[in-house]
């Protein structure tokens, strides 16, 4: 099961955070994010994309200036998550057409929506990019009509 | 592989972002500023300013929906960057109640993120969620369902459950899927109430849309973990779906890099592994499909995409969980081999993980890969190394132990995390203990560990090693070696031939004393624990050493004692070791004198104590062998706790008029009764009893602890206990009697007596403040006061008692303070003392220390001391005991002091009286 999905830049600033567990206060979240990001950023390219942190496994993948970090429990398939991150990036890329850090910041609502379409409750629910993006186009149409 | 995306995601390349039309200038400015922040500090400052601005806005009564949604997005950013925005959570809820879909979407999104940290908002949301679930707009329903999965709690389930159940049959796959995710949330929170509807989502397994089936599988995965028996009948369906997927009959959109729906395959494999666990029948149904999936997954290996590997890894996990099938286990171990031998660290990591599980059910799995596994320890990747260590702990056996431990130790040296290191060291020690077949190897390995990580080791290892060396045998060891390894046998052959003339135990001792003598001679700042073992072994078995002469070892030990890097505890052990060596070899070094001189004044009492012991023992050349006989750690020592050899002596002294010994228990009992009696009798008889003081017989006050009291108990009156109380009463009565002679202006006679009484009272008060225990003695004092003349002799006797007590206590503290002994011995010592005292009083025989009679008793006592020295092997326990002895001694000091004080007072009073006279 996925515990959280984080997108941070190479300076360690959070760009998107989605938690699937309750019971963490804002301060605890900030502390957790800082610690995990610090560890991931210090790792070298050749080293494996997994990190054991307390009772979690963190699976991370770097795309230029952005790091995608996913915290999972013991039984989750690490490579499955690693490929899911890639699938997520591909979906973001298809929607934003050449996605970049500022895209995610200006369209944080859309980024969250894509994530919600792909994973809920800590489970992967959809990996078909067309299906994921379809509802977003509807929202876009609505927002374009706004005065 | 992901190179293209790396370029696309580059921050520098970005010039014109997809900027939505609803973004205001202010919002854009905020985003750009956040993007420009170079540090967390800048960012915090920026957000704090932003929050002040936002607070102004939220105070406005009317905010347009557009502005509201924009404010909500800004708040979202603030929370994302770790700031509390609870003041404006209500804005998100307001926005979710807008009719426009976009505002609604923003509102729900923000609310679901805010709410996880603010539970009060949940109830405010439930109304609009209920409304939207019934909406005609598919997207509104979808958004409401998404929000449910994030904010729902147990209490809220009944409010939405019926609506969600209807939505399970919605025509849109998107809604069916989302309704199922909502059901999953309910199931997790209250499984009992949701399992009633299991039939409803069983149907969803056959949904036209595979992604709906995928979500339904999440529910079954949850059930398979908690109640596998309830869904065993579905195994066929799961196998069918899996077959369908791998045969490629799904729409092409679900393919990911030529692998068909990899994440759904993983889910299915997980469910099957839970259902087949410990169930041979179900497992048999699953074997075939797993084998097929495993075979298919290899296709994905070409592109360097991990989806195929992910499935393969899941297959290995499933196979380990299922009821064991040799064929599948073999396939799994081959697959794991592919991972381990891969170029990628990711795959290596998973290979190691897979083998760690696999090796529990199929120990042969690692046979081919041992060298690669060990190589992983040398990889710079920390995550991989830690996983490898875990695996190594599982695959260690008698044949590879020495190799693996060596590798682990070299890995341990690179570690910095103290906590992890400590746990690892203890695990390695345990491993060596469990699998080590060779005592020689074990000792050498432990030494190696102690040299580097001595500070992290539990001290129990010291006693294990001592026990092993004193009891173990090297012969069995060599037999084992012959069986196992011919080469090793040849190497040790030379040594072996030298040692054959000894029995196994002696050979082991020679071996170990050589090693430890060398460690001492190296004079390196090793951890104390290693030196402590070395010193003990050297002290016990120095005469067996073949590589060093005893003198050499002694010189090294002397150097070590003077070294700055050892602790006082080790230094004390070194002094004892030196004592042992001198007594075993009979050789003496001049440096020892210097050592004794230097450390006799050490601040550490233990060291000082041992120095004095050494000095004392070395001055008794006749009995030195009896005190520290060589190789006596395992000899049982018989202790005559009754000290029967003294019986004759006691009888003699009794015949000569000595007093009988009163045991500690009896004394305590008497004291207690006394206390009780005082309380009870205080109110009673207030008569004068002058005869009590007159019939005192001072000659017989002799028990050293509470002398005068007993006299009164027994001899003054026939009623033993109540008597002393009456004495006290009589004192007060006496005073009242005097008061009859008082007039209002003053006193008409008996001035001396009165003064004495006042003085006496003052002292009494002081004494009570200082020590409650003095009460009884105080009584004695009063008695003395009133019977000055009668007690004169008594006091003298008392003083003699005190002197003797002091001497004996000295002897005792010398003997027992450090070495420690069993409690009975101490008790008996007391007995002896008292017996002696009895004698002293009557016959003026000097104490043991002054004139040691060369009798049987003396020799036997030496034996006891000797026995105590040999008990050094159990240093710990004896330390504890010695502590309790110290306490005892202290208590004796107290009584001694009070008695002395009393005597002083009595003397003063006598002086006073004589002057007046």
Automatic annotation (TrEMBL), chain A:
<keyword id="KW-0813">Transport</keyword>
<dbReference type="InterPro" id="IPR016635">
    <property type="entry name" value="AP_complex_ssu"/>
</dbReference>
<comment type="similarity">
    <text>Belongs to the adaptor complexes small subunit family.</text>
</comment>
<keyword id="KW-0472">Membrane</keyword>
<keyword id="KW-0653">Protein transport</keyword>
<protein>
    <recommendedName>
        <fullName>AP complex subunit sigma</fullName>
    </recommendedName>
</protein>
<dbReference type="InterPro" id="IPR022775">
    <property type="entry name" value="AP_mu_sigma_su"/>
</dbReference>
<dbReference type="Pfam" id="PF01217">
    <property type="entry name" value="Clat_adaptor_s"/>
</dbReference>
<dbReference type="GO" id="GO:0005737">
    <property type="term" value="C:cytoplasm"/>
</dbReference>
<dbReference type="InterPro" id="IPR011012">
    <property type="entry name" value="Longin-like_dom_sf"/>
</dbReference>
<dbReference type="GO" id="GO:0012505">
    <property type="term" value="C:endomembrane system"/>
</dbReference>
<dbReference type="GO" id="GO:0006886">
    <property type="term" value="P:intracellular protein transport"/>
</dbReference>
<feature type="domain" description="AP complex mu/sigma subunit">
    <location>
        <begin position="1"/>
        <end position="141"/>
    </location>
</feature>
UniProtKB/TrEMBL annotation, chain B:
<comment type="function">
    <text>Adaptins are components of the adaptor complexes which link clathrin to receptors in coated vesicles. Clathrin-associated protein complexes are believed to interact with the cytoplasmic tails of membrane proteins, leading to their selection and concentration.</text>
</comment>
<dbReference type="InterPro" id="IPR017104">
    <property type="entry name" value="AP2_complex_asu"/>
</dbReference>
<dbReference type="InterPro" id="IPR050840">
    <property type="entry name" value="Adaptor_Complx_Large_Subunit"/>
</dbReference>
<keyword id="KW-0653">Protein transport</keyword>
<dbReference type="Pfam" id="PF01602">
    <property type="entry name" value="Adaptin_N"/>
</dbReference>
<dbReference type="InterPro" id="IPR002553">
    <property type="entry name" value="Clathrin/coatomer_adapt-like_N"/>
</dbReference>
<feature type="compositionally biased region" description="Basic and acidic residues">
    <location>
        <begin position="751"/>
        <end position="770"/>
    </location>
</feature>
<dbReference type="InterPro" id="IPR016024">
    <property type="entry name" value="ARM-type_fold"/>
</dbReference>
<feature type="region of interest" description="Disordered">
    <location>
        <begin position="746"/>
        <end position="809"/>
    </location>
</feature>
<comment type="similarity">
    <text>Belongs to the adaptor complexes large subunit family.</text>
</comment>
<keyword id="KW-0254">Endocytosis</keyword>
<protein>
    <recommendedName>
        <fullName>AP-2 complex subunit alpha</fullName>
    </recommendedName>
</protein>
<keyword id="KW-0168">Coated pit</keyword>
<keyword id="KW-0472">Membrane</keyword>
<feature type="compositionally biased region" description="Acidic residues">
    <location>
        <begin position="475"/>
        <end position="490"/>
    </location>
</feature>
<feature type="region of interest" description="Disordered">
    <location>
        <begin position="475"/>
        <end position="498"/>
    </location>
</feature>
<keyword id="KW-0813">Transport</keyword>
<feature type="domain" description="Clathrin/coatomer adaptor adaptin-like N-terminal">
    <location>
        <begin position="53"/>
        <end position="471"/>
    </location>
</feature>
<dbReference type="InterPro" id="IPR011989">
    <property type="entry name" value="ARM-like"/>
</dbReference>
<feature type="compositionally biased region" description="Low complexity">
    <location>
        <begin position="771"/>
        <end position="805"/>
    </location>
</feature>
């Amino acid at each position: 099961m996925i515990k959280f999905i984080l997108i941070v830049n190479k300076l360690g600033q959070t760009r998107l955070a989605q938690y699937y567990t309750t019971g963490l206060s804002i301060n605890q979240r900030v502390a957790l994010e800082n610690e995990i990001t610090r560890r991931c950023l210090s790792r070298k390219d050749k080293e494996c994309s997994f990190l054991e942190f307390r009772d979690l496994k963190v699976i991370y993948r770097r795309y230029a200036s952005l790091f995608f970090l996913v915290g999972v429990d013991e039984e989750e398939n690490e490579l499955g998550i690693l490929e899911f991150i890639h699938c997520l990036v591909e979906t973001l890329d298809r929607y934003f057409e050449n996605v970049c850090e500022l895209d995610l910041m200006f369209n944080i609502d859309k980024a969250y929506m894509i994530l919600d379409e792909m994973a809920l409750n800590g489970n992967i629910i959809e990996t078909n990019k067309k299906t994921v993006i379809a509802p977003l186009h509807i929202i876009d149409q609505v927002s374009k009509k706004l005065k | 592989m992901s190179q293209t995306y790396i370029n696309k995601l580059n921050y520098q390349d970005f010039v014109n972002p997809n900027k939505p039309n609803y973004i205001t200038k202010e919002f854009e400015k905020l985003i750009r500023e956040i993007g420009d922040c170079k540090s967390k500090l800048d960012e915090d400052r920026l957000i704090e300013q932003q929050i002040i601005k936002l607070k102004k806005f939220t105070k406005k009564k009317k905010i347009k929906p557009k502005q509201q949604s924009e404010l909500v997005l800004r708040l979202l950013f603030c929370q994302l960057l770790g700031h509390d925005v609870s003041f404006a959570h209500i804005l998100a809820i307001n926005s979710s109640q807008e009719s426009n879909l976009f505002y609604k979407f923003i509102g729900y999104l923000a609310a679901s993120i805010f709410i996880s940290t603010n539970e009060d908002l949940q109830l405010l949301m439930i109304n609009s969620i209920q409304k939207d679930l019934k909406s005609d707009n598919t997207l509104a329903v979808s958004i409401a369902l998404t929000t449910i999965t994030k904010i729902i709690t147990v209490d809220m389930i009944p409010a939405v459950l019926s609506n969600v159940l209807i939505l399970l049959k919605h025509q849109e796959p998107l809604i069916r899927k989302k309704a199922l995710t909502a059901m999953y949330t309910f199931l997790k929170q209250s499984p009992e109430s949701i399992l009633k509807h299991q039939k409803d989502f069983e149907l969803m397994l056959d949904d036209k849309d595979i992604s709906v089936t995928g979500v339904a599988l999440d529910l079954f995965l949850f059930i398979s973990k908690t109640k596998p028996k309830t869904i065993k009948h579905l195994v066929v369906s799961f196998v069918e779906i899996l077959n369908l997927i791998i045969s490629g009959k799904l729409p092409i959109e679900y393919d990911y890099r030529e692998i068909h729906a990899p994440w759904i395959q993983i889910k299915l494999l997980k469910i099957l592994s839970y259902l087949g666990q410990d169930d041979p029948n179900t497992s048999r149904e699953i074997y075939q499909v797993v084998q097929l999936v495993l075979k298919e997954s290899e296709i994905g290996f070409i592109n360097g995409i991990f989806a195929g590997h992910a499935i393969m890894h899941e297959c290995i996990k499933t196979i380990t969980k299922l009821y064991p099938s040799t064929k599948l286990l073999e396939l799994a171990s081959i697959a794991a081999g592919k991972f381990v031998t891969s170029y990628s660290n990711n795959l290596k990591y998973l290979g190691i993980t897979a083998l760690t599980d696999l090796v529990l059910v199929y120990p042969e799995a690692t046979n081919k890969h041992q060298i690669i596994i060990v190589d992983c320890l040398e990889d710079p990747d920390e995550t991989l190394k830690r996983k490898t260590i875990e695996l190594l702990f599982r695959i260690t056996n008698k044949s590879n132990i020495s190799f693996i431990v060596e590798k682990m130790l070299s890995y341990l040296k690179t570690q910095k995390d103290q906590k992890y290191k400590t746990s690892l060291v203890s695990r390695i020690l345990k491993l060596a203990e469990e699998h080590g077949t060779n005592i020689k190897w074990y000792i050498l390995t432990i030494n190696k560990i102690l040299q580097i990580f001595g500070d992290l080791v539990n001290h129990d290892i010291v006693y294990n090693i001592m026990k092993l060396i004193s009891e173990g045998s090297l012969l069995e060891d060599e037999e084992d070696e012959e069986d196992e390894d011919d080469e090793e046998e040849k190497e040790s052959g030379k040594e072996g031939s030298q040692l054959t003339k000894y029995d196994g135990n002696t050979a082991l001792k020679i071996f170990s004393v050589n090693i430890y003598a060398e460690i001492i001679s190296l004079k390196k700042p090793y951890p104390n624990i290693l030196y402590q073992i070395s010193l003990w072994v050297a002290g016990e078995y120095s005469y067996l050493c073949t590589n060093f002469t005893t003198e050499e070892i002694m010189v090294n030990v002397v150097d070590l004692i003077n070294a700055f890097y050892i602790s006082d505890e080790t230094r004390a052990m070194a002094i004892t070791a030196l004592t042992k060596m001198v007594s075993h070899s009979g050789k003496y070094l001049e440096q020892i004198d210097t050592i004794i001189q230097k450390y006799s004044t050490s601040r550490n009492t233990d060291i000082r104590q041992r120095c004095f012991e050494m000095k004392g023992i070395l001055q008794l050349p006749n009995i030195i062998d009896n005190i520290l006989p060589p190789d006596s750690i395992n000899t049982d020592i018989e202790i005559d706790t009754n000290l029967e050899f003294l019986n004759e002596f006691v009888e003699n002294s009794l015949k000569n008029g000595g007093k009988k010994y009163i045991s500690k228990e009896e004394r305590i009992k008497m004291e207690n009764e006394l206390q009780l009696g005082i309380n009870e009798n205080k109110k009673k008889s207030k008569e004068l009893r002058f005869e009590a003081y007159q019939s005192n017989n001072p000659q017989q006050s002799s028990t050293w602890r509470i002398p005068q009291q007993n006299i009164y108990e027994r001899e003054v009156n026939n009623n033993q206990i109540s008597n002393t109380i009456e004495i006290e009463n009589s004192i007060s009565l006496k005073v009242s009697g005097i008061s009859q002679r008082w007039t209002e202006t003053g006193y008409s006679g008996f001035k001396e007596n009165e003064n004495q009484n006042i003085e006496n009272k003052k002292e009494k008060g002081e004494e009570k403040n200082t020590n409650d225990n003095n009460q009884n003695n105080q009584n004695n004092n009063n008695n003395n006061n009133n019977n000055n003349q009668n007690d004169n002799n008594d006091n003298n006797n008392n003083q003699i008692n005190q002197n003797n007590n002091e001497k004996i206590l000295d002897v005792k503290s010398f003997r027992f303070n450090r070495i420690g002994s069993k409690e009975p011995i101490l008790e008996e010592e007391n007995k002896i003392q008292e017996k002696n005292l009895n004698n002293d009083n009557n016959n003026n025989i000097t104490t043991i220390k002054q004139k040691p009679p060369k009798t049987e008793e003396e020799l036997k006592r030496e034996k006891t001391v000797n026995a105590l020295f040999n008990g050094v092997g159990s240093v710990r326990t004896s330390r504890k005991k010695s502590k309790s002895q110290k306490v005892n001694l202290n208590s004796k000091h107290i009584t001694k002091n009070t008695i002395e004080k009393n005597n002083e007072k009595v003397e003063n009073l006598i002086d006073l009286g004589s002057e007046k006279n």
